[in-house]
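hey
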């Protein structure tokens, strides 16, 4: 019985934890990395076909985004997630595949002219559709037997619609250990979703630390703050461009935009228009409505009971097609544009930045965490004066602002409150999902102030869950730039992956009836004879 840390180890994105017991293998999250790696990342140490189960804390791409790649490499196990997470993954993973296919096609068109090697996407829409057939939607608070010796339960983490912390009970040789994976813990007091729930016991806790070094400023009146920013921007004749995650942050923004109109906070521009330029955001908004009774917080539910749609208002406009998206910037009227991605590293937001970054009258407003290495971080934290978009240099003349307190992540006080709800101190608290200095500092804080045994793993570190001892050490080698996880670059690479899957399937045949084994062996032998040249 052991756990190995693969992703979000001394960095914020790419969450992935690998657990083995008896002859079973499972992952908790299978996320895509965003931004630059701090250290060399440990790849999955076994063929994807070996993995029996994946448990997903929530739908954000840095927790779910490599599931189609896992499927592409042979995974055919079961994926457990809450109902809302399953529904959101269904649209987010397909959207991710579409973006990657589109960008690969665009790069190949340009690269072909200068003889560059063909770029292939990590995975395609078929992989995204295929992996969704393996999801099992689960309710909150129900203990589920996954297989002999493995039970799980989802608890609301208050971070995103459907987000969860996951309790996992693992039994091997009559020894049972309970693991708790925090997922991303919510900030609390959000207008649309419920506050995070607490858990009271665990042997091991795997805990996020995104904001483990600071407290959020006292929550401002977001509607009033937004109204002030809109007023300043419109008075100059510019657009307010907001890079925002399509799922979660966009819906919160709509809530406050509705409030601005309802409370008449912008009398000079009462008829202001808000454009949602993200087909994914529109689909996600529908999923929010479908899950409102299970996931909405009391504030939003009270509006629903009164017959008020919490995230709809006069002046809300949408862009679905690329042509509709392009027309937004040909409309000279000052407007609010909400578009993805939230870190500006892909998607339609880059087109809106190209049209507005150089305009002194426009404002770019960030409302979420920006991972180092992304364009969003460069604009907000590095104060760059010029960026390259679609091969063109664009001056940064627009106002760059940050709406503090809008985070969906718990701050230091909230994280401390969450861990201190455990009635008995866990054997160890593993600190993950935080920039290295933040994770190390938060681990030291929990140890020195509250007496927890903490450890901040490197990617590749592994621990025996019976003894609590470290059994493998990951690489401490820093990297200068993003290493990246690549899909098959050629058809031969793809063939090798299929061969590895076949080997994994053969291993799973142990114990089958001899006649079935003989039949399978004959089929493989015949195939080899056909292609052995």
């Amino acid at each position: 019985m052991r756990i190995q840390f693969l992703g979000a180890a001394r960095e914020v994105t790419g969450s992935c934890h690998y657990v083995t017991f008896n002859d079973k293998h499972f992952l908790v999250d299978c996320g895509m990395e965003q931004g630059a790696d701090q250290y060399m990342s440990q790849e999955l140490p076994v063929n994807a076909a070996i993995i029996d189960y994946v448990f997903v804390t929530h739908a954000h791409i840095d927790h779910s985004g490599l599931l189609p790649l896992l499927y592409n490499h042979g995974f055919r196990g079961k994926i457990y997630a809450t109902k809302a997470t399953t529904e959101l993954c269904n649209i987010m993973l397909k959207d991710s595949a579409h973006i990657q296919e589109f960008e690969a096609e665009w790069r190949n068109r340009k690269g072909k002219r200068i003889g560059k090697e063909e770029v292939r996407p990590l995975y395609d829409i078929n992989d995204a559709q295929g992996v969704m057939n393996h999801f099992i939607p689960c309710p909150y608070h129900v203990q589920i037997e996954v297989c002999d010796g493995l039970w799980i339960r989802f608890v609301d983490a208050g971070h995103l619609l459907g987000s969860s912390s996951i309790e996992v009970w693992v039994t091997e040789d009559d020894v049972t250990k309970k693991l708790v994976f925090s997922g991303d813990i919510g900030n609390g007091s959000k207008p649309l979703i419920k506050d995070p729930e607490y858990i009271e016991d665990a042997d091991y806790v795997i805990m996020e630390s995104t904001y483990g070094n600071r407290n959020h400023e006292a929550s401002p009146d977001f509607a009033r703050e937004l109204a002030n920013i809109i007023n300043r921007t419109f008075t100059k004749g510019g657009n307010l461009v907001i890079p925002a995650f399509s799922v979660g942050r966009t819906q919160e923004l709509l809530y406050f935009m509705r409030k601005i109109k309802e409370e008449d906070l912008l009398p000079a521009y009462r008829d202001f228009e808000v454009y949602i330029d993200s087909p994914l955001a529109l689909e996600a908004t529908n999923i929010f409505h479908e899950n409102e009774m299970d996931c909405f917080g009391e504030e939003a539910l009270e509006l629903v009971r009164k017959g008020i749609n919490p995230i709809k208002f006069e002046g809300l406009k949408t862009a679905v097609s690329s042509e509709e998206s392009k027309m937004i910037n040909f409309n000279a009227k000052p407007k609010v544009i909400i578009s993805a991605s939230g870190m500006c590293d892909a998607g339609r937001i880059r087109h809106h930045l190209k049209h507005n970054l150089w305009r002194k009258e426009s404002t770019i407003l960030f409302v979420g965490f920006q991972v180092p290495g992304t364009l969003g971080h460069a604009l907000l934290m590095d104060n760059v004066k010029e960026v390259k978009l679609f091969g063109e240099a664009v001056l940064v003349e627009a106002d760059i602002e940050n709406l503090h307190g809008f985070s969906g992540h718990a701050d230091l006080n909230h994280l401390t409150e969450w861990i201190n709800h455990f009635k008995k101190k866990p054997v160890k608290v593993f600190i993950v999902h935080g920039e290295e200095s933040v994770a190390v500092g938060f681990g030291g804080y929990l140890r020195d102030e509250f007496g927890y045994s903490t450890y901040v793993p490197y990617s590749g570190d592994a621990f025996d869950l019976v003894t609590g001892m470290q059994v493998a050490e990951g690489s401490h080698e820093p990297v200068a730039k993003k290493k990246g996880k690549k899909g098959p670059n050629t058809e031969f690479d793809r063939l090798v992956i299929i061969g590895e899957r076949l080997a994994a399937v053969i291993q799973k045949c142990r114990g089958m009836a001899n006649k079935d084994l003989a039949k399978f062996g004959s089929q493989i032998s015949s195939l080899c004879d056909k292609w052995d040249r």
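The two ends are 44 Å apart (CA to CA). The chain has three domains: 2-215+408-472, 222-402, 491-531.
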